[in-house]
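Feature request, filed as a ticket because there's no other form

It would be nice if the structure record came with a short human-readable summary line next to the tokens. Right now we just get the raw output. Example of a typical job, pasted below so the devs can see what we mean:
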Amino acid sequence: MWILGVNAPPAGWHDTAACLIDGDGRIVAFSEEERLNRRRHSLYRKPTGAARLCLEQAGISAADIDVVALGWDDEQLYPGRFADDAAFLSYAVGLDFGERLPQVVRVGHHQAHAASSFYASPFRKAGVLVVDGHGENESSSIWTYEEGRAPRLDRSWQRTASLGYAYDAASTWLGFSFLNAGKTMGLAAYGRAQGMVTESLVDLAGDDFSLAVEPLAERAGRATAEDIKEQYEHTVARWRERYTRIAGAEGPRAAEDRLAEDPAAVLVAYTAQRIVEETVTHLASLTRKTAGVEELCMSGGVALNCSTNGTLPGPLYVPPVPHDAGVALGAAWTVRPPRVRTAPLSPYLGSDIAAGAVTAADTEDLLRTPLDIDALTALLLDGRVGAVAQGRAEVGPRALCHRSIIAVPDTADVTTRVNLVKNREQWRPFAGVTRPGYGARLWEQQEHLSRYMLGAARATDLGRQVAPGVVHVDGTTRPQTLTGDEAPAVGAALDALEAQGAPPVLLNTSFNDRGEPVVDTAQDALAAFRSMELDFLVLGDCLYRKKSAPGGGA
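Raw output as currently delivered:
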């Protein structure tokens, strides 16, 4: 049995993705469409390329697919849009399934989010908290999941009581897209560092919460996409008016690259961040109480808020794909949960770098040598900034050392250099990667969040001393730990640094230029290496330098 999960239009109109599982719920492949079509967030584009990648990985054709599972109830949102499942599959997926069409299963958006988190976790029973912009009929929901039992929806909150809407309003007030909420989170850290006092915009009362911008009186029953769009725009506009009153301005007074110097901009970002932190902390406690266990899973776009995740106590698991791409996996697992779960989900499920052969003609302008870890370590210790592209691509928005830019973070200046390389604003922070033993000395410990770089942790005195390049203005970092050989080149470089008496920690950020998706194939990696001011590239088992680079031989 083959089940293809998708996040696909018209309901899933951003972060489209495809995931293929077999009859035992084992993941064969999982990819976001943006990695393949090179369009950031793949807006309004069907996940055809991602689906084909999954089929190729399994060695099957579209005619072998038994079920297509969608992480939305598009029939509610777009009633009567498709005459039948054939029309839906043509529009949403774009594969030729032959004469035997697969069964189409529509999974509620929040249930798909919840499944993607629980079944990826190591827990046998957990409370699952889903918080995002909105599903079909809710903005936050609490679930109880237990191995071998049907999931239970315990509680939900209406769409316009949305933490995602409140955060979207702050992001757009700041001049960002709602898809750039990570920038808002990074800017909010300046408010925390300054000890800024914000107006409380959430009331936490008993087992509920109420936001300062009251939710709308939503029409009971099954809202359509048009209804939701109108409610979203109205609610976000009201939140923006509230931020305007708080800031005393309708928008930032500084350009985007200088927002950290604008007190009004920092205030708005930190105010929105505090809304999320206060409310999610309350909801997390309520979820544990409702489920009757301490084990907590989180998903939905708000679960990408690393600063909030890092403040939550107790056993907490967030998958590498908590955003909308993750419902491709969650929808598939709702149809067929994994029969065997022995470890948390591996994120390395996308394109294999080895699948794209690199010819001599492809690299004739570069110096190529076999990868030698001592040579790589020497470059890093010499202050060089480079990239790594090895193995199968990570799924999710965080680069986890298979498609990463790396550097030694021993000075704060490396932050300036890497932000220049990536053409980013200088106030944006970076994260660090190390081995678990050394990480215990550098920052507060996180049992699961540091697996996928999804939780902020306060740096220790040693962390601030040896790795200032990955410590943000508020004293936190967003760490990743490598436990084995899951990222061979970076892991070996960390071990070599330690063997030479250097701190075994590296800056790790996504391998992409401004406005582009993370690189996927070998050709993507080579193109990005040429266009960016990088000193070296580890591609598969080879090390590349630019002939015109200092020490490059030219």
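Something like this underneath would help us a lot:
The chain has a mean pLDDT of 96.
The two ends are 56 Å apart (CA to CA).
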